[in-house]
Amino acid sequence: METKDIILDLRTKKGLSQEELAEKIFVTRQAVSRWENGETIPNIETLKLLSKFFEVSINTLLGSPQQLVCKCCGMNLEDCNISKETNGNFNEEYCKWCYTDGDFTLDFWKQYIKIGGVEKFEEFKKQIIDEFNTILGIEGLPKIEKLNVLSGSFVNLEYRLPNGDMVKFLDDKASYLGSQLECEFGGDRCFGIAANMDFLLVCTYEKNGENPELVMYKKR
Q1: Which listed residue, 12, 45, 180, 184, has the most CB atoms within 10 A of its CB?
Q2: So where are the chain's domains?
Q3: pTM for the full predicted model
């Protein structure tokens, strides 16, 4: 969809007239009309107002011309997971699990980098990758080549134990090194891996983390 169609669709879904939308974002009705006719597009400041009002990203308003990726964890960004600033504006560089209310959430790794430097942090990540690739030998798990910093609230899945109890192994407020990988044998399930200073974890799950199963939890 083009910007003109997106604005028309969002306005219609809100049940607003062109004049009512204009009042909400401090422009004239004629300006809204020109947008929806494809004669012009909103300037950047007006796009920010439209983004906040409709709760969609500027990228969406422009017809999603590029695939946004979180610069912290590497996750593909969509309107449902893009971070916001304290004023409610979208921050289209990060996901909401890595950055929220104007600050990063992954304090542990920020401190690690601050103390040891980026080079030491990359060395630690390589060490974790080597452990996953050489120690575990899990069937169907492809070779791991990169790890992202992930929020615990994103990767802390709940697993069913053999006795029927449900349990989580991670901390929602912590952050971990992890990644998602497609199974070498195909199918609907994929692998999720997570690690920190103390452990390595491997699990499988379906789309959106549904029906997770713990494959291995190993102390380092």
Answers
A1: 180
A2: 1-66, 67-105, 107-219
A3: 0.55
Superfamily the domain 1-66 falls into: lambda repressor-like DNA-binding domains (1.10.260.40)
Helix axes 18-25, 3-14, angle to 10 degrees: 100
Beta strands at 190-195 and 175-182: parallel, antiparallel or unpaired: antiparallel
DSSP, residue by residue, 148-180: EEEEHHHH--EEE-TTS-EEE-S-TTSEEEEEE
pLDDT (mean) for 15-26: 96
180 phi/psi in degrees, rounded to 5: -120, 135
* 92 closest CA partner among 60, 46, 119, 120: 60
Q: How far apart are CA 68 and CA 200, in angstroms?
A: 29
